[in-house]
What we know:
By secondary structure, this protein is of the alpha+beta class. It has a 6-stranded antiparallel β-sheet with strand order 8-7-6-11-10-9, sandwiched between helices. Strands 13, 14, 15, 16, 19 and 20 form a 6-stranded mixed β-sheet that branches. β13 and β14 (about 375-380) form a beta hairpin. α8 runs parallel beside α9.
Amino acid sequence: MVDRGASALSLPDDWPAHPDPILALNRMGGFDWDLDTGVFAMDARAHEIFDLTPEEYDGNPESLSPRVPQAESLRLDTLVTRAIKDGSENYGAYFRIRRRDGGLRWAHTQGYIRRDDTGRPRRIIGIVRDASDELRDLAAHREETALDDARREQTNVVQLTTAALAHARTVKDVIDVLKDTHGLIHLGATSLVMGLVEAGRIRLIAEGPEGSFVPGTLVTRIDEPYPMSEVVRTLTPRFIESPDEFAAGYPVLWPHLTGLKITSAAYLPLIVQARPIGAMGLLYSDRHGFTPEERNILVALGSSIAQSLQRAMFYEQEKDIAQGLQQAMLPRTIPSVPGADVAVRYRAATIGGSHGRDIGGDWYDLIPLPGGRVGAVIGDVQGHDTHAAAVMGQLRIVLRAYASEGHTPATVMARASVFLHELDTDRFATCLYTEADLATGVVQMVRAGHIDPMVRAVDGTCRRISVPGGLPLGLSAEFGRLDYPVATLELDPGHTLLLCTDGLVEQPGADLDDGMRALAELIATGPDDVRALADRLIEVAEERGGDDDVALLLLRRRAPDAPQAGSRLQQHVAPGDPEALTQARHMIRAAVRTWGAQERSDDVELVADELVTNALMHTEGAAIVTLRLLTGGGRRLRVEVEDSSSALPRRREAGDSGVSGRGLLLVELLSDVWGVEARGGGKCVWCEFGVPERS
């Protein structure tokens, strides 16, 4: 029976096998070096490895010099000498052998040092083998490992770049990612260029490093002989593998790049939905050619960059539209208000994520009112989108309209709430409306779910004004609670009233009261000028960031040219109340004397009496008589008589039937100027008299 395990190795009869056939079958040769005589004996396989015949070798190690280059021989001698001296038992080394035909092959030797009882080295017994295939395989493995490492590193760069691009919101953000130390610089690029396609041209948006800009390439046509133009036309990447190829392909561009020592380049079209939006070029100074793997990685990178650029371009377009809408909804200009310094500011929110829009529903407004009064509004519609901005614009307009009609602050707020409720929207709004009489400093305030205002005194101290409030606009109408309490404040000359939205106060995780205290400290330490103070507050909001927009209105009452005590007097005159009418006449006489208008005393008393009488005779309600001393543009005494009838008075000329309306002829004749203003559901008839300056 045949032993199936038998092989050529088991054919000899002697067992176990002698060392010689074992070494020969493993392509190894043996040697025995007698250190006393210097004889270096080798077997037949060793002769083959050194490419020598037995006749060519006489046992002298120096006879191997034609086969072992001098540098290799010196290295081996040093290795053996050191092993002998330091007491080593063996040594091993790779070395090169020059074959008979002059070519070189790698070999490996390993020797065992035999010593006598005294430790003296007597013999070295060892092996020598052909290591060419081994080192070739090792080199190939190392090369493959290096290529794998390079691919892995490039893939990591692509992954890191793609991850960073996911957070880029603007085109500048995309460029910053690519120029960052964790970006394309890891791919070894010396220079980066990028352009966007606009109206049949390519506009350069990035180039680097500094000083590498090529004149005339800021805007180029797609049909021009440039590599970025070519890849946009063909939608195909262009890999340039040598300076000669670059110079031959693009003779117009190449002379401008010679200073950068460019050896190769990769130009990639940036394509989104089969449409080129731009192109990118990577220029290298230490690379010649691109492997298929490198080309694939760069193409994949170009696709990722194109998607990020498109997303950034859409974001910037939406941002421009949103900001345009926001600006259109806010007042284009703030009117000049006699007797006050005003500053307004708006800061758009910065909403995170690719779907956010830098737009909100915050707004401010300043409304000039008759009689030296001014209305100031601050408000915030729920939400951060175009719908919030649209609702804000409509709400601002109706608030201005209601205030201009002469309604009281509480009525203005109540009507605005009803309007928002009926606007077919699910949004509500907070609002603070103030009406300030700059001549007297009296400020009336109503609040609809908004944060309180603040007042800064001349000495810089700042305090929060507690204003009782009602529900936010829209909700108050829904729940039938349209009552808005009115708070009154006297704003002294030099004091500043601050109205703002909660974006200036609220911080994530912080209490609102803490935020109000921090804001008060910031206002107290801020500049005296209202515009500089407004800038400072917005700067702090910018530094803090946040996902809410900020609207801000500052109103400082100026000191009057000639301050007068009691510069505003008012009397309520009810129908059928002769005592109230008498008190009103006394008030008028006292005001005329106090304010130095004795020369016009008879005219003022006669006209005021006529206006009050007309109001009581021709309306059903009471009359409110108000006297003011106005100082802007010259000292003037102003008489106002307000009633609840919206019917306007009619002036009749002499000869018309009846006597009704003839009192207006007297008013026109005796006063310097007069007029009628709507006041909510009623009206106000007013007239002014010039008062001489005090000496």
